[in-house]
Write a structure and sequence with these properties.
The protein is mostly helical. It is globular and about 55 Å long.
Length: about 250
């Protein structure tokens, strides 16, 4: 995308991107519905939200995981989506192409991590692995803030992407296997609140800080992730989140 913007400018790049949504639409049309959870419950939206929060909070493992997801994404969203364009423009002086290369590094790593997550057998100590990868991601954020060049940032982001891709697959699979089928939609809505709904807050804070001191912003974001990892360790996430043997 960065190279495309450099070649044909921003407007045509958006038009080309819009065409790609036809592929997504065709894929969605091909999706066939599976089994639906059977439930006799009938409640209004407010009641359903309350019940979802109650169910989530009553399970220590799910509760801890969603709080960690919220902390991680608040720390990541702003620095990645606001900080990287700043680095590309003002530190590396390479504009859209540098930004595109850095994002491509994260994306390539995420694809690799996703594939590995689908190949690896059962991970008994999933919670411990979550905390280790969170530590790596937090350190990676700090290193990006100190990165002297695009290749260094690309390499660090590739490692971070691999960790994030791996966790997204294994953690979401574990979560949906643990939750009762009739509650999955409500629990996943809280996951999306933590991972997407809080993003505007992260973007706003990052936008206010990046012009003040971009490096410090990345360092603080990395420290938040590490602090969340330590909190998870203290709360016993490593023992709460464990993959069960397949039935």
């Amino acid at each position: 995308a960065g190279l495309l913007v450099q070649l044909v400018s921003t407007g045509p790049a958006f038009a080309i991107d819009a065409i790609s949504f036809a592929v997504a639409a065709a894929a969605l049309i091909a999706v066939r519905g599976g089994r639906r959870a059977v439930t006799t419950e009938r409640m209004n939206v407010t009641g359903a939200v309350r019940e979802g929060i109650r169910y989530t909070w009553s399970d220590p493992a799910i509760r801890s995981l969603i709080l960690l997801i919220a902390a991680f994404n608040v720390a990541f969203g702003g620095p990645i989506n606001v900080g990287l364009p700043w680095l590309a423009e003002f530190r590396f002086h390479a504009g859209a192409s540098a930004y595109g290369i850095m994002i491509a590094g994260f994306g390539a790593g995420a694809v690799l991590g996703t594939i590995v997550a689908g190949v690896v057998a059962r991970i008994e100590h999933l919670g411990a692995l979550l905390l280790v990868l969170a530590l790596i991601l937090g350190i990676g954020l700090a290193v990006i803030g100190l990165a002297p060049s695009v290749p260094v940032a690309f390499a660090v982001l590739a490692v971070m992407g691999a960790g994030a891709g791996f966790l997204n697959v294994r953690i979401m699979a574990w979560l949906q296997a643990r939750v009762e089928p009739s509650r999955i939609g409500r629990v996943m809505s809280l996951v999306m609140l933590g991972s997407v709904g809080l993003a505007p807050i992260s973007y706003g804070i990052a936008g206010a800080l990046v012009d003040v001191h971009a490096t410090l912003m990345f360092l603080v974001a990395g420290a938040i992730v590490v602090a969340a990892m330590i909190a998870g360790l203290v709360s016993g996430v490593a023992t709460l989140i464990r993959e069960e043997a397949p039935r």
